[in-house]
Each structure stands twice: as structure tokens, then as C-alpha cells.
């Protein structure tokens, strides 16, 4: 086997994936893996979907590439129309890029340019949340709140400060109602804006349902509406990052619809291309777009592959499949089953502290002690061991480590394809339970 690919890990060559079919991947040795996390919440339609393949073949036969400096294309236009039609109220424009980090990067730059165009150049800061992840390019990394990731590349390009997360399992006080907790968590934004000087801040960014860094933690009811109010009160743009939780993953095309909140800027990626093509999108309100259109008339940004016809054709087929196959209802139904099975099988496990999520986006938090919620010692690398045990048994799941505050436990994120059936849900839960049992006895 050649070994010149510079992979994520330099500690060895992983198995070679050679084929995907439905909810399964196969490696070169013929081993089958149940894709319990869609890779990283990517493969929402499963592997080798016939409609997406057909759309890609058709597009390839017609037009593979036309540079956006000269042209738009039919699939890009149709995709933008479909996204706007499904998006929260007020989203009118779609900027197509090639992935999640690019979408966040574009959102930050668009926010900055918006304030320059409307004559508020002093607004340059971003507020985000602790422990958040919004991508790995330098701007997106600057927005994210993971101290370890940030430290290595400091000083970062965008001045960002971080407020508490909305994380009821860890942060809700004894005797505090969920509604009061949601208000308190959101009010941290107002305090931070007042501390910084609100007219120096351009945007607040958050995931409506936190994916990789917390394990499918939804905002509590009332939190996002209050965040919206605070942003409006101080003229700050609200960026919702739905790179992971968007495109039907939570049972709504856009997760924020569940919260009844529309942002100013909205990012999607992973499930949009569903693994068939690298693509991401930034959705913007008419107000933000108009400021640029009637100002300089040119967004100072761009990537060679943005709006790529093949990527747009794949994404259009994905959006069409989600809508025409009524997959949002299916995600809600199968998500409820996954949740119920997880609770049945793991609900009483001494090291399972919390089971949460929405739709087919579920998380399990592992703790040393259920009563005190004390996490495992991070040095034990519980999440890595669960991942390895599950992978060896033929299950792909997405575990992540305990967190910077030293208080959160290791967790496992589940985000299977929307086509997962009841038997596969049972297999997933059984294999995961065995991996947890072997790792946290
Ligand atoms: N935002 C969120 C919420 C993400 O989960 C991710 C990827 N895990 C990104 C942004 C970055 O996306 P990408 O890896 O496609 O650049």
C-alpha cells in the first residue's frame, strides 16, 4: 500500500475504505462498518444513493466547471432557490463554498464588511461560546472557543471572546427551572457585550444544537429567542452555525426552526453535500446582502471552487431527496427510536450520565460517577478507547474528549444516515453498548 498521503494522524495508516452502500462502509480487507455517525454527521442519505449518483452523472456529462468570476450555473441557481425556500424567514441570499470552515470564514468576513459598508467600522469583535468549534481555517479557528486548539496558533486573526455554553446537564442550578436557566445562559451574552462595549462587536456565533464539542446538546427552550433579542438590542449580527446540525439532521431542515429563531447569517455544510461532494453554504438576509449590493457592490471574498456545478448538483439532489422522500418526518421517527433504544440499553449504565439530542443527532455523556457527574480523568482517554473498541467491532461513532473546563465528561456523538432502519438502530446501540462496557466497566 502506498503511504504518501499526509493524513490527520501521522501515527499510522488507517484501513483503506473502498466501498459504501447504504449505512455501511467496507474496507479493502472486506470488513464491514456500520456508519453510526455519518462519518462526522455528513452522510445523511447513506452511501451510494442512486439519485445523487444519477444527478452527478448528468451534471458531469453537461458541465463540470465554470468559474464564478464569469458565470453562474443552473445547479447553483436551483440549489440557492431550494435553500432559500426551506430556510428561516428573511434568508434571501446563498453564498456557495466548499465546506464548513469556508462557510464560517465567509460569514465572519461578510459580517465585517457589512459593518464597514454601513459606516460602523469599529465593530470588529466576535463573541462565541466556550468550548465551541466552528472550523479550522484561521478565522473560523479564531471564532471557536477551544483553548487548546486556539493556543497553538495564537495570536489569532479575529478578536473573539467566549461566554458560557447553553448546557443544561452541566450548568443548570439545583432548583432552577429550564426556562430560568435558558435566560441566565443567554444573559451572559448581554453581560459580555456590555463589558466589551456593544458597538465594538459585529457578531455572535453559536450552534443551535452543539455537535462535535459537546455531543448533540440542544439549546434549551427560550435560549435562542433571548439571544436573538439581545443581538437586536445591541445591533449585533447573529450567526447560527448549522454546519453539523443543519440539513435535516435534527428533524428540521434547519435546526433553528425548532427554536423559532431566524439568524442574520446561517452556515451549513456537511449534510448538504452528504459526502458526495465538498460543499458548504452561507445564507444571508436581504438586509446584509443589500448593504453590500448598494454599497461597494462586491463581497471581498471568493474561492476558485465556490459554486462548483458538480457540488451544487449533488447538493440539489440531496435537498430534493430530503424533501421528496419525506425524510424529515423519518428522521424524527427514527431519532425517537434511537433515543428510546439508547435509554433502554444504556439509561441505567453507571457511567452514562446523560443521553440527549434531537432527531438523528444524539449524544451520550460518560462520567466516572453518575451521582456527582464527575468526569473520567482525561488522561484515561475514554473517548479514544470507545472509538477504537467500536471501530474494531465494525461501528463508526464519533467520540470526543472531556473538555477545557475540566468538568464535562467524554461523550459519543451519533449521527447515522437518515435511512437507518430499526434493525440497524438496534445493532448500532448494541455495538456501542459493548464498546462502552469494554471501556468503562
Ligand atoms: N462548524 C461546525 C459546527 C462543525 O462541526 C464543523 C466541522 N466539524 C465546522 C464548522 C467545519 O467544517 P469543515 O470541517 O467542513 O470545514
From TrEMBL:
One GO MF term attached to the UniProt entry: pyridoxal phosphate binding
Chain segments annotated as coiled-coil in the UniProt record: none
Keywords: Aminotransferase, Pyridoxal phosphate, Transferase
InterPro entries, A to Z: Aminotrans_3, Aminotrans_3_PPA_site, PyrdxlP-dep_Trfase, PyrdxlP-dep_Trfase_major, PyrdxlP-dep_Trfase_small
Pfam family, one: Aminotran_3
Highest taxon in the source lineage: Bacteria
Cofactor field: pyridoxal 5'-phosphate
Any one GO cellular component localisation term in the record: cytosol
SUPFAM superfamilies in alphabetical order: PLP-dependent transferases
UniProt record similarity statement: Belongs to the class-III pyridoxal-phosphate-dependent aminotransferase family.
Listed name of the protein: Adenosylmethionine-8-amino-7-oxononanoate aminotransferase
Protein's organism: Caenispirillum bisanense
Taxon lineage: Bacteria, Pseudomonadati, Pseudomonadota, Alphaproteobacteria, Rhodospirillales
Amino acid at each position: 500500500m502506498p503511504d504518501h498521503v499526509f493524513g490527520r494522524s501521522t501515527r499510522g495508516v488507517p484501513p483503506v475504505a473502498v466501498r459504501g452502500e447504504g449505512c455501511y462502509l467496507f474496507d479493502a480487507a472486506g470488513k464491514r462498518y456500520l456508519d453510526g455517525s455519518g462519518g462526522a454527521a455528513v452522510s445523511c442519505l447513506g452511501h451510494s444513493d442512486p439519485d445523487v449518483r444519477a444527478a452527478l452523472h448528468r451534471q458531469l456529462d453537461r458541465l463540470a466547471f465554470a468559474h464564478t468570476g464569469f458565470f453562474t450555473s443552473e445547479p447553483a441557481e436551483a440549489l440557492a432557490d431550494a435553500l432559500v425556500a426551506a430556510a428561516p424567514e428573511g434568508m434571501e441570499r446563498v453564498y456557495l463554498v466548499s465546506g464548513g470552515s469556508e462557510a464560517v470564514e465567509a460569514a465572519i468576513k461578510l459580517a465585517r464588511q457589512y459593518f464597514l459598508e454601513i459606516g460602523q467600522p469599529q465593530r470588529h469583535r466576535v463573541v462565541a461560546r466556550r468550548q465551541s468549534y466552528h472550523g479550522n481555517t484561521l478565522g473560523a479557528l479564531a471564532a471557536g472557543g477551544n483553548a487548546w486548539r486556539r493556543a497553538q496558533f495564537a495570536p489569532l486573526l479575529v478578536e473573539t471572546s467566549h461566554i458560557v455554553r447553553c448546557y443544561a446537564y452541566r450548568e443548570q442550578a439545583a432548583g432552577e427551572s429550564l426556562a430560568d436557566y435558558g435566560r441566565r445562559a443567554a444573559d451572559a451574552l448581554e453581560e459580555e457585550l456590555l463589558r466589551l462595549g456593544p458597538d465594538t462587536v459585529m457578531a455572535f456565533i453559536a450552534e443551535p444544537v452543539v455537535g462535535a464539542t459537546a455531543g448533540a446538546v440542544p439549546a434549551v427552550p427560550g435560549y435562542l429567542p433571548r439571544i436573538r433579542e439581545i443581538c437586536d438590542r445591541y445591533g449585533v449580527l447573529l450567526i447560527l452555525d448549522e454546519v453539523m446540525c443543519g440539513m435535516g439532521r435534527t428533524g428540521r431542515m434547519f435546526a433553528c426552526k425548532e427554536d423559532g429563531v431566524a439568524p442574520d447569517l446561517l452556515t451549513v455544510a456537511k449534510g448538504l453535500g452528504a459526502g458526495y461532494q465538498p460543499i458548504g453554504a452561507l445564507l444571508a438576509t436581504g438586509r446584509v446582502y443589500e448593504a453590500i449590493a448598494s454599497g461597494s457592490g462586491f463581497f471581498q471574498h471568493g474561492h476558485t471552487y465556490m459554486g462548483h456545478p458538480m457540488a451544487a448538483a449533488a447538493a440539489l439532489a440531496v435537498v430534493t431527496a430530503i424533501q421528496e422522500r419525506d425524510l424529515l418526518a423519518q428522521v424524527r421517527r427514527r431519532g425517537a427510536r434511537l433515543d428510546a433504544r439508547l435509554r433502554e440499553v444504556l439509561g441505567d449504565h453507571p457511567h452514562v450520565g446523560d443521553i440527549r439530542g434531537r432527531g438523528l443527532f444524539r449524544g451520550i455523556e460518560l462520567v466516572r460517577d453518575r451521582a456527582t457527574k464527575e468526569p473520567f480523568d482525561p488522561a484515561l482517554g475514554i473517548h479514544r478507547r470507545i472509538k477504537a473498541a467500536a471501530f474494531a467491532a465494525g461501528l463508526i461513532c464519533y467520540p470526543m474528549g472531556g473538555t477545557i473546563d475540566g468538568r464535562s465528561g467524554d461523550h459519543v456523538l451519533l449521527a447515522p444516515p437518515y435511512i437507518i432502519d430499526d434493525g440497524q438502530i438496534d445493532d448500532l446501540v448494541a455495538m456501542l453498548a459493548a464498546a462502552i462496557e469494554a471501556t468503562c466497566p
